[in-house]
Amino acid sequence: MIKLTCIRHTSVNVPSGTCYGQTDVALAATYAEEKDMITGQLLTLRFDKIFSSPLSRCRKLAADLFPQHEIHFDERLKELHFGQWENKGWDEIFFSDAGKHWMDHYLEEACPGGESYPEFRKRVALFLEELYVKFTGHVVLVTHAGVIRLVKSILHNQTVEEIFETFNPAFGGVYSFDLNLKDEKA
Description:
single chain
């Protein structure tokens, strides 16, 4: 079994209501304070492997939290790719015909030029399966809210709808899970 600690990146410097998915965005001015809060939560823990999304908001946090560790950057830990909607306002997206359609069908369909939730879930599930096969011990993922939601969805056998209703990972949030896929396949 693997102990899994998922850390969401800290606040970003984008206007509220912006869809930024896989866009590389700057960190907010509160970065140092938020990083110190995360560090305080990790002080008594020992980690065997560190993985991170390659996007700069995660890459910087991983490097600053774990300067003595080798960090493994994995594309599968990126946020959902929103295609043509990257860096647009959610209000603008929602009020477009394509946006309304996607909001009603987001569990099956990709946004224009982007990724679907089934594709997103598959890449996160494949990452978890690979972790389970190759590693033991305590593993850290520095990643995004969408990835953390899918980790919980997969490991707790919850639907994406249930996760969206009950679980909203905070900026700089630290979440622990046990990765045990013996009885259920990701």
